[in-house]
Amino acid sequence: MKIATFVFKDQRRVGIVANDGESLTLLELPAGESHRGVSAVVDLMVNNGDLEASFGETVSLSDVRLLAPIPRPARNIICVGRNYHEHARELADSVFKDNDSGEPRWPIVFSKLPETVIAHGDPVMLPPASVSSQIDYEAELAVIIGKGGSNIQPEDVKDHIFGYTIVNDVTARDVQMRHKQWLLGKSFDTFCPMGPWVVSADEFVAEDTRVRCWVNDELRQDGLTRDLIFDIPTLIAHCSRGITLIPGDIIATGTPAGVGMGFDPPRFLKAGDRVRIEIDGIGTLENTFVGKD
Ligand code: MG
What's the gap in Å between 182 CA and the centre of ligand 1? Predict the structure, then answer.
């Protein structure tokens, strides 16, 4: 099941995308719930609600404007740094080097502010050069937490995953490095494109899918999730140690090799660049980067 958040007839709505990707079945959710996007469906299903009872009319996908599936997360997006073997090697000399391979002994975990989230098709705003001149893309598979919990064991994570989506963990590299902690360099306005929708966990094989990213039709990243250093069960176990995860929490699992910073010389984004991310089994997330006047 693919679940999308979108605008239809000037109203924010949630719906189920048909298998052919051409139409949507609207969900008739209680007043106010649609505003929360897919988070409302997560809560409904965590509470054993009857989703089919809310099925409404079917409309064409071309008649809606997609929004990020969770337009405003309830709290920061949890992100994992340097979590593919080849990406760790390409950045081995850059940040937080803690052994020769560049691979961390523990997951590197940081967060992005909820206000960074934008939709497929929305523009990403480049900051003035005085703020940052090193804007980079990071194609990532993101996990949407269903049932909450703390101290979740790796063997139990299936009970806690609602589904998956795509995020672009857009990063200001100079700001990221300068401050050691990554929050600022990762949280500029519009720096978290998300979408195009959420695929439910029962229809997606997260352990073995392909993550690709193009900049202006040039393939830059091409990774397989089987190359994750810390797999998704391990990540959820770490992120829930002493912290209660809640329904709708988002964990971005890290990016494969091929980021702009990994090139020599680095290839950072500029106004007019188009970044397209595809994850097999989910879909396509595309955004254009634009300069501020
Ligand atoms: Mg990242």
Answer: 10
- pLDDT tens per residue, range 80-97: 999 999 888 887 766 555
What's the 11 CA to ligand 1 centre distance in angstroms? 32
CB neighbours (10 Å) of residue 244?
11
Kindly give the distance from the C-alpha atom of residue 157 to the centroid of ligand 1, in angstroms, as a whole number. Answer: 22
Q: What pLDDT, on the 0 to 100 scale, is given for residue 231? A: 97
Beta strands 192-200 and 210-215 are: unpaired
Is residue 22 within 8 A of residue 61, CB to CB? The reply is yes
How are beta strands 55-60 and 108-112 bridged, if at all? Answer: unpaired
- Cα 80 to ligand 1 centroid, rounded to whole Å: 6
Residue with tokens 């809640």: 246
- Is 211 within 8 Å of 140 (Cβ atoms)? yes
Compute, in angstroms, the gap from residue 144 CA to the centroid of ligand 1: 16
**271-to-154, 202, 263 alpha-carbon distances in Å:** 42, 39, 19
CA of 260 to the centre of ligand 1 (A): 12
- pTM, two decimal places: 0.96
Element (H, E) at 32: none
Q: CB count, 10 Å around CB of 147?
A: 17
17-42 residue pLDDT tens: 999 899 999 999 987 899 999 999 99
140 CA from centroid of ligand 1 (Å): 7
Surface-to-core class of residue 289, CB atoms within 10 Å of its CB (0-12 exposed, 13-18 middle, 19+ buried): buried
